[in-house]
Design goal:
The complex is a heterodimer of chains A (221) and B (283). By secondary structure, chain A is an all-alpha fold. Helices cover 88% and strands 0% of the residues of chain A. Chain A contains eight helices and no strands. In chain A, helix 5 runs antiparallel to helix 6 and helix 6 crosses helix 8. Chain A starts with a helix and ends with a helix. Chain B has two domains: 209 residues, 3-Layer(aba) Sandwich (Rossmann fold); 65 residues, no CATH class. The radius of gyration of chain B is 21 Å and the shape is elongated. Chain B has eleven helices and 14 strands. Chain B starts with a strand and ends with a strand. Helix content of chain B is 35%, strand content 28%. By secondary structure, chain B is of the alpha/beta class. The longest helix of chain B is centred in the middle third of the chain and has 17 residues. Classes of the chains: A mainly alpha (221), B alpha/beta (283). Chains A and B meet through helix 1 and helix 4 of A and helix 2 and helix 3 of B.
């Protein structure tokens, strides 16, 4: 697995440099030119970078490289494990780097009120990025680059649709039920919300991993 | 080292039906035209595709059961696959180092220099020949016991081809227990390298013979109509109608040379055997 990690790190180093610079520049422009807060920098950089890690599968696919990789001392299971581990490490690195940048921006503006709130609030971005990766990886393993692009759009669209429907249905609830829910959210507090994000991310990761393992086992090269 | 028994793989109209064996200490060739089933055989042998019937034993195990340790002892080149084009050779070195415990980094780098494989250039920008060389060099520098080489000389010029074939010979000389399975559509490559050769056509193995026998005992008889009429047909493998009469492939060249002194009996070459086996009519 170490060899595969090195391979993906080299691919990222060769192909991700421009993306990294672009992300920082775009995040900076967005922050200074619009009224988004510093958390946008963290969210934007972490999530886009995380999605890029899933595209290392495209590089494996280029020139039928997949086929050759599977002849190396690498099992299909290890290949899947490596993709998830690599994505997780990439998310953590992107989050740390973007946190440093965003914190500098926050400090220079004198907007940082509470470290706990600042770090805790941004921690949920890791979970969101992980959910994105969890959706992308099995789709990317199942379909080729072209089909996966459409599959990703459909999957993301479905997630947004579900969120929208849940939100709209929430509005239909009686006022009493809504206020009870609001009270419950208040009660569990920031830590509780973070925990919910964490549970959702872990569940998404487990389901996604099992799907990827299944897809890879049955894959014909 | 490798044993394929009654392997059947169906792709639409195409059916591969293959039985072959690669013994320890031998170089076995697989020859056939494009689309004959060579790459499918390789993929099935390596567990990259499922198959409909039959069984494969690679280093004593079914391909799906091979552990990482087992795979460390196999060096593979595939016709249309290799390292990602978005890597450079200098990126491949640490990958190989991490994947193969017995990877000989210095030998690999030395061979890259000797064969003109650039270290600091994206593989996607390599010529076909350079890519072919890289694949072979990566396969032979981690102390594998078995090399499975699908069209390793494709895209190479004559000189480079000969140098690569010499690498295979040196690889075999280093350890008598090593084996190679190699496919090529360039029959002269196989003639000078292999101990035995399988010929595949339309997914079927149509001939298996030791190379020495193939080159020394097979022959091409050229006979006009009356000579052909009188010809003993027992040792004729296939016949093809030609402008002058008949071309006949035999595996008993000596017999016809001794008993039919008026006949033209040419020494067999792999190309002629292939042409006659595929294009000729079996008797």
């Amino acid at each position: 697995m170490k060899g595969l990690m090195i391979k993906d790190a080299k691919l990222l180093k060769n192909q991700g440099k421009i993306l990294a610079v672009m992300l920082v520049v775009v995040a900076g422009i967005m922050y200074f030119a619009t009224d988004v807060n510093a958390s946008f920098i963290v969210g934007y950089i972490t999530i886009i970078f995380a999605m890029f890690t899933a595209t290392t599968i495209s590089y494996d696919e280029f020139d039928n490289c997949y086929l050759f990789l599977m002849t190396l001392p690498v099992t299909r299971k290890k290949y899947v494990n490596e993709k998830y581990l690599f994505a997780l490490i990439s998310i953590l690195i992107a989050w740390c780097v973007s946190m440093v940048l965003a914190t500098v921006v926050e400090l220079s503006g004198g907007d940082l009120l509470s470290w706990g709130e600042w770090i805790g609030g941004n921690l949920c971005i890791i979970f969101i990025a992980w959910v994105f990766v969890s959706v992308m990886l099995p789709l990317r393993l199942k379909f080729n680059a072209e089909k996966a692009r459409y599959a990703n759009l459909i999957a993301m669209g479905c997630i947004l649709a579900v969120v929208y429907i849940v939100y709209q249905m929430g509005k239909l609830l009686p006022a009493e039920a809504r206020s009870r829910m609001a009270a419950y959210i208040n009660e569990i507090g920031d830590t509780g919300i973070l925990l919910v994000f964490g549970v959702v991310a872990v569940a998404a990761g487990v389901i996604s991993y099992l799907c990827s393992r299944h897809i890879m086992t049955r894959k014909e090269f | 080292m490798l044993e394929i028994n009654s392997l059947v793989k169906k792709y639409g109209d195409f059916t591969l039906n293959c039985t072959m064996k690669v013994d320890k200490g031998r170089i076995t060739g697989l020859v056939g035209e494009n689309g004959a089933g060579k790459s499918t055989t390789f993929k099935a042998a390596l567990g990259l595709i499922s198959y409909d019937a039959g069984n494969v034993s690679l280093m004593g195990k079914a391909p799906a059961e091979l552990s990482e340790k087992d795979k460390e002892k196999i060096g593979v080149t595939l016709a249309e696959s290799g390292f990602s084009g978005y890597l450079k050779v200098k990126d491949v070195v640490p990958v190989m180092d991490a994947i193969y415990p017995e990877f000989d980094r210095s030998a690999f780098l030395e061979l890259c220099g000797k064969f003109g494989v650039p270290l600091d250039k994206y593989i996607k920008d390599f010529s076909t020949g350079m890519k072919a060389k890289l694949k072979v060099l990566a396969a032979i520098t981690h102390n594998a016991d078995l090399l499975i080489m699908d069209e390793p000389t494709t895209g190479l010029d004559v000189m480079a081809r000969e140098r690569i074939l010499n690498l295979f010979r040196e690889y075999m000389e280093e350890d008598e227990n090593r084996s190679i399975l190699i496919s090529s559509h360039i029959s002269s490559d196989l003639e000078g390298l292999c101990d035995d050769i399988y010929m595949i056509h339309n997914g079927q193995i149509i001939l298996h013979e030791d190379t020495d026998i193939l080159l020394n005992e097979y022959g091409l008889i050229k006979a006009d109509a009356s000579q052909y009429e009188k010809l003993e047909k027992e040792y004729i493998l296939s016949v093809r109608k030609e402008a002058f009469g008949y071309a006949c492939l035999t595996n008993q060249r000596q017999y016809y040379m001794e008993n039919y002194p008026d006949l033209v009996v040419e020494k067999g070459t792999l190309d002629e055997v292939i042409t006659m086996m595929i294009g000729g009519e079996k008797l």
